[in-house]
Amino acid sequence: MKFRGKIVDVACLNHFTRVVSTISKLTKTCALRLTPDHLFFVLCGKVASGGVAMWCELAQANIFDEYQMEGVSSQDNEICLEVTPENIFRALRTVHNAKSVKVKLTKKHCPCLTVAAELPTMSSVNRVVTHDVPVDVIPRRLWHEFKEPSLPDFDVSVYLPPLKTMKNVVDRMKNLSNFLVVEANLSGQMTLKIETDLVSVTTHFKDLGNPHWGDRTSQDGGSQSPRDLDAMAQARVDIRKLQQFLVGQQVNPSRAICNIVHQTVLHLILLHQDVSLQYFIPALA
Amino acid sequence: MDCVVTGGNVKVLAKAIHSLSRIGDELYIEPQEGPGLALRCVNSSRSAYGCFLFSPLFFSRYIVPNGIAFRCRMSIKSVQAVFRSLASLEKTVEKCHIHLDKQKDRLTFTLHCKYGLLRTHNLSFQDSETLQAVFDKNSCKNVFRANPRLLVDTVAHFPPSMEEVTLSVSDERMWLRNHVDEELGDSSAMLTELFLVSDEFDHFAVQAHTSITFCLKELRGLLFFAENTGLPISMYFDEPGSPLVLSVSDSILEGDFVLATLSDDTRNDTRRGDTPPARPPDDFMNDDMDSYLIAMDTSIAPGPSTTDSTSSKQQVVANHRTRLHSEEEEEAETAEKDGPPNKKFCSLLFGSVLPLSSQMSTQPVSNQEVLASDSDDDTQID
User: Fold this and answer.
1) What SUPFAM superfamilies does the entry give (chain A) (predicted)?
2) CA dihedral B150, B153, B159, B162 (to 10 degrees)
3) Please, are residues A208 and A159 in contact by the beta-carbon 8 Å criterion?
């Protein structure tokens, strides 16, 4: 198992730092899968984490100038690590102005992801700082837990309103309730709703647009009759989980999509150039 | 006592007080005729001491009554409150007048602000003895001087939660690493290491290749002061266990911070500290990929965290060399001798060191008595 990557471009470094920052806001630990072409940050929906799942995909070529890796074997050319994104973020943040940054898998007192950076100085010699972030190597027999989640068979898919607006709304609602109902239909409408004994608050969004998912059978066509455009699908979720997602995100996505499987799961997707982030929040009864 | 500070010096005074507040809870004030006004602070475990001495020239008026020695101590929080907002201080305050109100037994701070606004704070105080740490920075073997910016940039690499760093020096380099207590077996801690070459310092004189471990908190405090005043910081130290002295000075003021360092009794630690300078200089440059090979059979579950040696329990009572002469010295001395046997760090040096991770949860918590905890933000387990 070998891995070594080098980032020279400051924009790439910042981009990568922002992605890791976003992930660190969503979860304390997650799996990092390294393949010859991609990096994946994966959180599988365990009961302990409230059933929340995450899948973040990055193309290595868009970040690293040099990228070498050798997986466990030639058939399984992949490395799977359990990491603390917060620590990686901290390491990357302190080297934001570096001339070059190397990220490599090293064997120190324990397996580490070492972030080594060359910092500019006034003198002729560069300053070098290394951060050793301890990681755990995930054995191959557990890899099956970290496969890409299949696209849920959603009832409604809608573009999200500007995330900042949504964050402001959810932040206020969080003071009033622990649960939030997200509703959306196929004519571009979405509502965020809380209901308590004392108050109910609903925010309506309209004309959001609905993404086209190609030849999906369940949405329309197939054996079933087409879904009524105005029929709302809803999911009642833990408001903190949604807030976490909105607070943490720093990717500035070009596309943000929300899929709802009626009373089952809220599936959020952020797309930005080469990065895609999927986040699953299970619906509560 | 009657003194007036004007213009930019008000801010300098305010910074000094904020900087001292990182050390302890009580501010010792001693106006002396010759040397000037001394502001001093010590932390509750007496492992850190800070002193600012403002010469009479710093003030536009400085009158100390002859013959009557006046000394006092007061809560630093109340003095900080006088200079609360540093940003607005610069814009609004034109003059600060400090005088002793003998009738009321109050120390009065009057801030003369713009538009004729007067802000008066009457602070109560307690009489006290002189607080004075005994140290001799000029006898130290290793002396460095650097622009505060260099140290600020260096310290920025260490997370705020990181308490202690180990500093090692060779003829040309200074190495800094965060100090991780191996006894605690905290393998999830992130290790950070960097070096600075001698070129980056204004002055770099090494006579002893030593390695010391000390608390970052107070250094950050002094950096806060030095960064804003732009004064270079000098560092003086010897072997582990003897204090680290950090100083700033110019013609009208002088600041000294004295920090205890981890004692040499932790032999293994010192030896570890010697390794970095011995290692090939540029780890960054010559990286042959094979050197990062992790030979690990992935079919077994990883267990690096469980294999850590938590077996040997070392009895270490840290050596507290920073002698402080004041009325409370006896208390400190006795506390030193009764150090808890099972703790690697004596709390007198670094405050209580508690198990940080869940890895320690299998160990009986009762081992970790806290004798003299540090002044703030220490949570006790029991």
Assistant:
1) DNA clamp (SSF55979)
2) 0
3) yes
- Contact list, A94 vs chain B (CB under 8 Å): 156-157
Residue entry with tokens 């500093």: B167
The position carrying tokens 């950050």 is B220
Mean pLDDT by 10 residues, chain A (285 residues): 92 91 91 93 79 90 92 88 92 89 89 91 83 91 85 89 92 93 92 92 93 63 65 92 85 86 92 88 87
Compute how many other C-beta atoms are within 10 angstroms of the C-beta atom of residue A217: 10
Q: Which of A89, A107, A145 to mutate to test the interface with B (most CBs of B within 10 A)?
A: A107
Counting Cα atoms < 13 Å in the Cβ hemisphere of A222 gives 10
Same fold, A2-146 and A156-282: yes
Contact A72, A36 (CB under 8 A): no
Q: How far is CA B151 from CA A120, A237, B171, B232, in A?
A: 15, 47, 19, 10
For residues B377 and B215, the answer to whether their CB atoms sit within 8 Å is no
User: Same domain for B122 and B24?
Assistant: yes
Handedness of CA A272, A278, A283, A284 (dihedral sign): negative
Residue B327, Cβ neighbours under 10 Å: how many? Answer: 10
Chain-centroid distance, C-alpha B231: 17
* Best CA proximity match to B88, nearest among B57, B113, B120: B113
Q: How far is CA A187 from CA A8, A228, A230, A255, A280, in A?
A: 45, 9, 6, 18, 23
Residue B282: strand pairing partners: none
Q: ipTM beyond 0.85?
A: no
Listed in sequence order, the residues at least 6 apart from A273 whose beta carbon sits closer than 8 Å to its beta carbon are A62, A254
User: How many structural domains is chain B composed of?
Assistant: 2
Task: Print the domain residue range for B369.
Answer: 2-133+353-376
CA angle A77, A79, A83 (to 5 degrees): 165
Q: Which two tokens stand for residue A239?
A: 């408001």
**Chain B contact present for A8, CB below 8 A:** no
Closest CB from B159, B283, B301 relative to A90: B159
Nearest to B250 by CA among B98, B43, B88, B36: B36
Interface residue of A127, A135, A145, A146 to substitute, partner B, most B CBs within 10 Å: A127
> pTM score, two decimals?
0.75
A193 in contact with B, Cβ within 8 Å = no
Task: Quickly name the fold that domain A156-282 has.
Answer: Proliferating Cell Nuclear Antigen (3.70.10)
CA B167 to chain A, closest CA, distance in angstroms equals: 14
The answer for residues whose C-beta is within 8 angstroms of residue B274's C-beta and 6 or more apart is B168, B209, B211
**Euclidean distance between CA atoms B8 and B202, whole angstroms:** 26
CATH fold for the domain made of A2-146: Proliferating Cell Nuclear Antigen (3.70.10)
